Amino acid sequence: MMGDYMSLLKEMQTTVIKYAEVLSKVLRVDVEIVDENLYRIAGTGMFSNRLNEYMEEEGHVYKEVMRNGQLQIIKDPGNHPICRFCKWQNNCDETFEMSMPIKMHDEVIGVIGLVCFTENQIEHILKNLDIFTDFLEQISDLIASKAREGLEVRKMKNLIEVLSSIIEKIEQGVLIIDKKNKIININSTAINMLGIEDIPEFIDSINKTGNEILNLDEYELIIDKKKYYVLGEEHKIISGVSTYDKVYIFTNINRLEAISTSITTTKENMGLDKIIGESKEIITIKNKIKKIKSSNSTVLITGESGTGKELFARAIHMESDRRDYAFVAINCAAIPDTLLESELFGYVKGAFTGADPKGKIGKIEFANKGTLFLDEIGDMPLYLQSKLLRVLEEREITRLGSNEPIPVDIRVIAATNKDLESLIKEYMFREDLYYRLNVIPFHIPPLRERKEDIKVLTYYFVKKYSSLFNKVNVIFSDEVWDCFMNYDWHGNVRELENVIEYAMNMVESNGIVTLNHIPKNILNRENEMYLSLSLEEMEKKYIKKALSIYGNTKEGKEKAAEELGIGIATLYRKIKKYGL
To answer: In this structure, what DSSP letter does residue 244 have?
Structure first.
């Protein structure tokens, strides 16, 4: 405990000196006050010129008072046992000492010493001993009270220093003001967010706009007559320290990517390693994605439903320089036209009937610094297409019900399973928007055009569902592989995953997947597919399959001819005929 109060009396030395002078005048004796380290903090008379002296060799009475915490009265200091170690004992001029401890929380933090040198002084003290003792005790309590205040101030200063250090290190902006809007503290994060070069002494005003997102209020700050908008929280300081009134912890609206990432994206890494495939088409696409990682150009991904267009979009984002910011996805076909605009652009309070009275920030703002993925772009209404084009050209948005533009820095990736060029001819899609989106085109081929990926995808999905269904060492019969290779997979990778999930549910404990574990609609559609083929088409299909199994080497072709039941010369002729 003693260490907590170290140098408290020294810190308030001026005040302690004034109390010593009051005591000296009232009691008509010399007064000295020492701290717990035996340094003379105050003194009158012969002690007035000996301030800040260390009293180790002469403060034995004070040591005893500090030890027992009791008032000590010594009538003959020169002959008292306590003073036997004092180097001035034999030459002591003092005739009377009265020492009162200064206590704080039952700890002695100093001693008040009254010293008499004459018989008149002793008589004056002893005549009024009870009254003077009470008075001395009151002065001791007053000094202790002031010391407590000093301790609280010291603790407050230490706390403020610690908080200031913490505030400077956190990623959020922190602003502390007093009741007159004077800036008491503002961290560098807040300064960078607001783009302030010279920190002003005051802010003009700070008020809620009424908008709210993610349980954070939007505030309008006016500093040097310039407006700034931030999202954050207000905390009222009620500690009684008048210097501090309110603390604001906020995030600049233009830097919401960290928050939006947590609610709009999966935390799983969706990079190129999540794109499963060994076909030359997939390898080509992966290499193309790597080439554009530093680009901000818009991307248009086309492909049938189920090919994994969003997965490719996420991979583009994860490979880009924007990977640490938000990936915000919105399906233009899944949201009614009447709501899509507000979802994209957001709105201010009271923008339209039925709107959230607090306002809302749109997905485009959420994607600031990151990537906005517009799935099913072909289903976007024409009037929104023009607004999106304006965003791409001007790099700013305006919320519904507002006239104030908000700058945004986004990369747009769009995807569709529709033929946009045909939609342009039908006046259902803007040609200028198409060219603005189609700067870097990607086409994801359907699974039926890259059947060499079927096995690797199958094993990937088996691994995924093995742990979920507690099925291990799962293998597929040759009939199942034939079925998979001959099926057209109109639902592409999504359909294949559904089939594997079904099979993993149905397979017995031996782990062998047979045709009995494959959905009937897959088998029926495969049979229908073969029935619709001509003899030449069936022949071509079987030869192609045999070559894929045994290879294009001389030995592979001989084995294929043997399995097909035809001569090697016939096989070579058929290969040439069908361009295999």
So the answer is: -
